[in-house]
Amino acid sequence: MRSGGKRFRMVSSRTWPRPEVEESVKKCFTAGLKPVMITGDHKRTAFAVAKKLGIATDLTQVITGEELDKLTDRELKKQCKKFTVYARVSPEHKVRI
Description:
two-stranded antiparallel sheet; alpha/beta; 3-stranded parallel beta sheet; 5 helices; globular
């Protein structure tokens, strides 16, 4: 694209859940369950998807694999209820969660 003689590039990437995921999340809430999202996506991307699904309302509900690594198992156990999204996690993190 050109604008005023300068070139710039726009890049957009969106990761949206399949339509049936939204319905499944609603059913979880209706049943009194708290859905949690575990993904390899970037923290902000994961938050955007979780917000759309109603899983998270604030970025403080998202923790990354790198942040997980800094917590002891005891700290994670104490704090896990405040997290609804686990972003940029590895298979090892999934086992730990």
